[in-house]
Amino acid sequence: MDTRTTPIIMRALLFTILLVAFAATAFAQSTTGTVSMSATVSKFVEINSGGAITLSGNSGGGVTTDGVVDNPLAASINLGELGPSNTNSFVTASVPLKLRSNAAYVLSMSATVTSTGSTSNKIVNTDVGFGLGSVTRSGTGVNTGGSDTNATSGDPTLAGNGSVNAGTGRYEYTAVKSNLSAFSASTTALNGAFILNAVPRSNTNGLTVPAIFAVKPQFYENGSTTVSVTFTVTAP
Amino acid sequence: MNLRFVISAIFLCVLIVCAATTISAQNFDISSGGQPTITGALGGSVSGSSSVLNNLVVTINFGEVSPANANSIVKVIVPIAIRSNAAYQVTVSLASSFSGNAQAVQSSDAGFGVGNLRSLGAGAKVCTRSGHIFYPPFNNDPANTVTINGSGRAAYQSSLANISGSTVILSGPRLTSGSVTRASDNGYAFDAIFAITPQFFAAGVSSATLTFTISAGPNVPC
């Protein structure tokens, strides 16, 4: 083959390749296709009412706005008369809470106590006992093996959680985090492991715990008192 | 060497190859079957071509599937077009990245089904001696077959967990009347349907890739 024929052969080859490429393009086919997918799960927590509020030991008063299970917690309670005319040992309100999460949770609480009185004998935050009762994890889909840490001392009316101050004669809640003075700023009341396994939101189970508030009727300065409590659950 | 002889030989070879290919080839094609759609998503999306002339390349982002998504289900429909000049089958294989945490999204949490075979148009081959078969358990819309199992978790008639290796989901007789040139009317389309029920999954990100393949299937008559 001489040097003149090589370019001709190369052009013929190129032309052939172009023909084949054109044919391949014109009859484009693919025997495979792909579908790629992804999904995200973020940490999720919620707090709702765990049901109806129980008010006991009250003289007058009542539950103004009751809790409705699985609905947002927005309860209102009138504790009634807290002076000595109420002869019960304690006025107690038990507010059921329901927590749900797909991650470890922290339940915090903050509270304010405001009284119209002008002396130290008015009701103040140390006069309002507080504690979280027994934590219950039960029902289909609940992580029943998860543990919880109650930072409060439980039912504030328990004998071990308070007593009459020998010096002042005033009843005091003396146990750890047993009155609202411990929650003047947002403070952890309960924390624990994830609450629900992989179940739909329509599953209404969760962790329930009663928030117990108590006031011992005493010779408080007359007036009215407002207690405001905010619960917050987070997944740190 | 004679130049004319060389060129003639090259052309002869090419012609022989082309002729052989044309005569003997069973041709198959899979492509987009139309615009994919997504419903019930929170921050999700799906992208893919609306043209049946384009390759099947779909990306689904189911978005948030924790209870923060208050919808009962996130559903995605991916239309897929298929063409063939011979009996065919469609298989699917799965490559995935799911957490080892049993409470996280698993392959069984992604419902997957197929159905709704329809003609693309006049160029589709209508066969009367054999039918097109969607293989169980995939012959369902997973959004309509959700149940709650004993542990309270959502379950489906079929899910990504039912895909093992290359799994046949559809087969049937010839799909295309003429040659399997990719055109808008010369085959069939079906829907691949995906569904995830938002649940209290453990936090994290999951991903998977499905590969759909069309090839020669059971030799059924047209």
Topology:
The complex is a heterodimer of chains A (236) and B (222).
Chain A: H1 5-26, E1 32-41, E2 45-49, E3 54-56, E4 62-65, E5 76-78, E6 91-101, E7 105-115, E8 128-132, E9 136-138, E10 148-150, E11 162-164, E12 171-173, E13 187-192, E14 206-215, E15 225-234
Chain B: H1 3-24, E1 28-32, E2 37-39, E3 45-47, E4 57-64, E5 74-84, E6 88-97, E7 110-119, E8 133-134, E9 147-148, E10 154-155, E11 167-172, E12 188-196, E13 204-216
Antiparallel strand pairs in B: 1-5, 2-5, 3-4, 5-12, 6-11, 6-13, 7-12, 8-11, 9-10
Shape annotation of chain B: elongated
Q: What would the average pLDDT of chain A be, to the nearest integer? A: 92
**Radius of gyration of chain B from CA coordinates:** 21 Å
**How does the overall form of chain A come out from the CA principal axes?**
elongated
Distance between the termini of chain B: 52 Å
Gyration radius of chain A (Cα, Å) is: 34 Å
Q: Uncertain spans of chain A, ≥5 residues at pLDDT below 50?
A: 17-27
**Beta-strand fraction estimate of chain A:** 35-45%
* Largest contact between chains: A-B, 47 and 75 residues
H-E order of chain B:
HEEEEEEEEEEEEE
Write a short abstract of this structure.
The complex is a heterodimer of chains A (236) and B (222). Chain A is mainly β and 236 residues long.
How would you describe this structure to a colleague?
Chain A is mainly β and 236 residues long. Chain A is built from one helix and 15 strands. Chain A has one helix at residues 5-26, and strands at 32-41, 45-49, 54-56, 62-65, 76-78, 91-101, 105-115, 128-132, 136-138, 148-150, 162-164, 171-173, 187-192, 206-215, 225-234. In chain A, β11 and β12 form a beta hairpin. Chain A is elongated. Residues 17-27 of chain A have low confidence and may be disordered. In chain B, strands 1, 2, 5, 7 and 12 form a five-stranded antiparallel β-sheet that branches. A four-stranded antiparallel β-sheet of chain B has the order 8-11-6-13, with no helix packed on it. Chain B has one helix and 13 strands, in the order αβββββββββββββ. In chain B, β9 and β10 form a beta hairpin. Chain B is mainly beta. Helices cover 10% and strands 38% of the residues of chain B. Chain B has one helix at residues 3-24; strands at residues 28-32, 37-39, 45-47, 57-64, 74-84, 88-97, 110-119, 133-134, 147-148, 154-155, 167-172, 188-196, 204-216. The interface between A and B is large, with 47 and 75 residues. β1 of chain A pairs parallel with β4 of chain B, so a sheet runs across the interface.
